[in-house]
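In this supplementary section we document a worked example of the pipeline. Step one takes a protein sequence of length 179 as its only input; no multiple sequence alignment statistics are reported here. Step two produces a three-dimensional model, which step three serialises into structure tokens for compact storage. The input and output of this example are shown verbatim.
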Amino acid sequence: MRRLLLNLTTSLDGFIADSDEGIEWIQPSPDQTAEYPPDYLELMESVDALVMGRATYELSLRIPGGTEVFAGKAAYVITSRSDLEPRAGVEFVDRDPASFVRDLKQTTGGTIWLFGGGRLATALSAAGLIDDYLIVLQPVLLGDGIRLWQDGSTRQGLELTHTREWPGGLVELRYRPQR
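The serialised model returned by step three reads:
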């Protein structure tokens, strides 16, 4: 069975976007460049599919280089909207997210990256479908914005499997659900 990886960046106070839906605060300054460690590169190489919500997809289209991560991978956008412009390699999915991901995990392939969306992450976590949580904490307090965990979150115990500090004060935390 394929694994579902939630991999995203959040502010220290739990926001994935600011109140204007912006993510400029996530971008490291030019002096914070770092080489990616081999284990992170290996993990990203294992990814052959991305699942995201519509808002994350539309944000990716607006920022320079925002869709580069899609290259060579299947991209699934969970949305009920039918007015989105078709794009090569992107499939728009209008069905229950948990049911879709449960079926996708049963197919042959590599790791599935849950690329973004607080509502989507909340729903898939509540359904017990996230196998790995890789959260990078950005050293900033936004105070307001779009929370990673939305109303309807359910309590779930997690086991810390790895930590890493990145230049500029970013901290990578990896967890697996306690089952």
